[in-house]
């Protein structure tokens, strides 16, 4: 895991180590840690007078801690699928796709190796924030020259050494296969991705038609339900009226029968 706070911590401790009596500058100590050659610094600390025993122990612990942190700092910000060394980020031959491509690179990157992967496009703005970047290897990838390649093309055209991109070619669509990405004309790239707009328009029309159809079905169901409810209400009202009428007739008949008796 990268250590985002180690850099300032190490600088502070290197300065402290120098203040505590190390005869070597912080940069020398740091290079010795990177080479694994720390023995000379330890021997120098062990030769200090016995009266400074506690100070000597503190210096040794600081020195060991700094060298333990060295591997963490070496990989600070390095993408997990790549390797980093001296400003070079090596991601070549890793079967990277546009989906698995790292979303960011260390800010001090000077060279990126992306060749011999399965890249079809680069995300917009991926390389824009790298002020120290000098070269990027992009050959050996199946670049799809539709709308998604416009960022890569514009980034190439902003570079000084265009010869480095003479082997970066399109693999599709068929009409642009084999063409150099940096020499593509924007209009022909846009023409090659018109089908996206056509498919999008067709999908929108189909969705709109289905929505209208669903609304019509709901409206028809409501009309049918209301008519059915109205019919049932009329039948219930008629039945109630007939019941009242039948009850009155029976009462009249009973009264006449009682009188005749």
Automatic annotation (TrEMBL):
InterPro entries: Cys-rich_flank_reg_C (IPR000483), GPIb-IX-V_Complex (IPR052313), LRR_dom_sf (IPR032675), LRRNT (IPR000372)
UniProt region (Disordered), positions on chain: 240-261
Xref: Gene3D superfamilies: Ribonuclease Inhibitor
Membrane-crossing residue ranges in chain numbering: 202-226
Keywords annotated in UniProt: Blood coagulation, Cell adhesion, Disulfide bond, Hemostasis, Leucine-rich repeat, Membrane, Signal, Transmembrane, Transmembrane helix
Coiled-coil segments on the chain, per record: none
Record membrane topology: Single-pass type I membrane protein
Organism field: Albula goreensis
All residue ranges annotated as the LRRCT domain in the record: 141-194
UniProt-listed GO biological process terms: blood coagulation; cell adhesion
Listed GO CC annotations: membrane
Domain LRRNT: 77-111
Stated name of the protein: Glycoprotein Ib platelet subunit beta
Subcellular location: Membrane
